Amino acid sequence: MKNFLRMKVRSPDLAVCTAKPGKALAVQGAGNDWLRAILMIKFVCNAGFARKVQMAKTQHDPTIEEYHFSNDGQVPNNPSLPAVIYRAVLEIGPGAAAVCEALFASNDWSAAWVDGIYAYHHYHSTAHEVLGITAGSVRVRLGGEHGKLLALGPGDVVIIPAGVAHKNEGASPDLIVVGAYPGGRSPDVRRPTAQEREKTLRNIAQVTLPVCDPVYGPSGPLLDRWRAADRT
Known about the structure:
This protein folds into two domains: 41 residues, no CATH class; 173 residues, Jelly Rolls (Sandwich), CATH 2.60.120.10. Strands 4-5-10-7-12-6 form a six-stranded antiparallel sheet, with helices on one face. A three-stranded antiparallel sheet has the order 1-2-3, with helices on one face. The radius of gyration is 18 Å and the shape is globular. It is built from five helices and twelve strands. It starts with a strand and ends with a helix. The protein is of the alpha+beta class. The N terminus is likely disordered.
């Protein structure tokens, strides 16, 4: 963990914190959202923050699920890589989204956002995506209309390979999701259609494996599973 932290608050206005853990800090650009910014920064900029991130990175015995989805003519899905779910591996409670975003960023999954999940089938052909559930619950269908419906709750993480469709099919009002992409790539957003099939398949084939697991770093179980799948 670096000595300095920069924290972006996702809101209509933007607040930036730069401080050593437990030391004085400055807030810029908080605007009308200053209260939320101060509350989040109060949690982030303390000595316990690094410990919370490290605790997640050192827990190497998560409950893991993986799901393979094939091309259905509308959704390409991914020809080799499975979607992977870690159950109950994230910190939950106040400030959990900030901890999750920092954890992902420390493992080179960035360009993060904090929001929900689109309520329509969509996929990304230019990047893999990780979704961390830091509050609430959601039912997500992976793989398209005929895919798998999964229930996700606080602390769960789902890593979605490029091409695999996902859709929110119902969520609790308090749902908070942190999303990020390996190397901070900017993903496209595609809807199921056969019209751009060849282009999206070419895009998916060009997306490389990530350097790090978004939760466990360079030796995480995601990498073992994806490397094995990519060789078959």
